[in-house]
Write a structure and sequence with these properties.
The protein is an alpha+beta fold and about 170 residues long. It has helices at about 10-20, 35-45, 95-110, 125-135; strands at about 1-5, 50-55, 65-70, 80-90, 120-125, 140-150, 155-165. The protein is built from four helices and seven strands. A hairpin with a 5-residue loop joins strand 6 (about 140-150) and strand 7 (about 155-165). Helix 1 (about 10-20) crosses helix 2 (about 35-45).
Length: about 170
């Protein structure tokens, strides 16, 4: 399994993976109709200073996992990558790929992005998922009640989590 920076050539594979996972709130927040080619294209065409996007590639050169975080464009938040998103092809979930992608992402931030002090994400309240991110170095910063509207119309709480880059140089 290879993990590398995403390129524009990965667009179709990434869009397909997003659509496969979309609609499952535990997977990602976007629903299938929100995963447009324009959305994926806009992610991959951001300036390198505004995004970190890595892909996991299988032995057939197919994208089987994606992790990304983006800056929101406001100067006062220029030290933050937000909306950390980790998606893994459903048939290989729970096999460590999400953890490998997350750790590679944080390693990339540590080694290559001294402009990033914190990485932020929102996680559905799920003890196993929260513990996995805590093991990677994330800390819980707060819980939000009824923040997520599930596909079936029910609501779930979410936890705000952050990771702090010890190599931040500001």
């Amino acid at each position: 399994m290879l993990i590398r920076k995403a390129t524009i050539a990965d667009r179709e594979d990434i869009a397909e993976l997003y659509r496969t996972v979309a609609g499952n709130v535990v997977g990602i927040s976007r629903r299938p109709h929100e995963i447009t080619d324009t959305y994926v294209y806009s992610l991959l065409n951001k300036k390198p200073s505004e995004i970190v996007c890595l892909v996991g590639i299988d032995e057939n050169d197919k994208v089987v996992g994606v992790v990304h975080g983006i800056k929101n464009g406001l100067e006062i938040y220029s030290h933050i990558l937000s909306d950390l998103t980790v998606i893994v092809k459903p048939d290989i979930q729970s096999q460590g790929m999400g953890r490998k992608l997350s750790l590679a992402f944080l390693e990339h931030i540590f080694n290559e992005r001294q402009d990033v002090m914190r990485v932020e994400m929102e996680v559905i309240v799920n003890l196993k998922l929260i513990q996995a991110f805590e093991m990677a170095g994330f800390v819980k910063e707060g819980e939000t009640k009824n923040r997520i509207k599930n596909v079936d119309g029910t609501f779930s709480d979410s936890v705000l989590m952050s990771w702090f880059n010890p190599n931040f140089k500001g």
